[in-house]
Amino acid sequence: MIESIIRSNKQELHRHFQFGWMGNPELANTIAMSELTVPHLIVLNSTTNHHHIPDDDPVLMTPEAVSLFLDQIHKQTAPAYGGNNWIVHIYRGFFETRTTLINMWRGNPVLTTLVFGLPLGFLSLICYSICCADILDADEDEEITETHEKKD
Q: Mind telling me which GO cellular component terms the entry cites (predicted)?
């Protein structure tokens, strides 16, 4: 469907858009910082690192809806997501960390548990020994024996 839209409006669209296809959704998920369904439509502005995602389900979109969506992007009335500011960088780091941990867990949950469980176990033992040291032992070492004499 997208190919037919490109062919019918080539003169109008080719000046503003370059069209491509991704075989693997991981790159699109990284750009959008969310899990996109397959197939999906995403428009990337490579100069500002903004991306546009249609509100409608891409599978159910008609050619007229896709043309309207591309026209909104060209007129800059469509909502833009992403960018290059520090909030997006922080969220992108959070998303990459979360995605990596989820993929590690799906691949090998036992190894993931060992990789994170053992260091956390040792850290908890260290914190317990620092914070919950027996205070009563210190009093026994410092006992002073005084002799009690009766005064007349």
A: endoplasmic reticulum; membrane
In this structure, the number of other CB atoms found within 10 A of the CB of residue 69 comes to 20
The predicted-structure confidence for 90-125, as pLDDT tens digits, reads as follows 999 999 999 999 999 999 999 999 999 999 999 999
pLDDT for res 110:
96
pLDDT in tens, 53-91: 998 888 888 889 998 999 999 999 999 999 889 999 999
Cα 126 vs. chain centroid, distance in angstroms? 31
Instruction: Indicate the length of the chain as a whole number.
Output: 152
Q: How many CB atoms within 10 Å of residue 111?
A: 11
Q: Tell me the residue ranges of DSSP E strands in the chain.
A: 43-45, 50-52, 81-82
CA distances 88 to 50, 79, 95, 135, Å, are 10, 16, 10, 48
Rounded CA separation 119/128 (Å) = 14
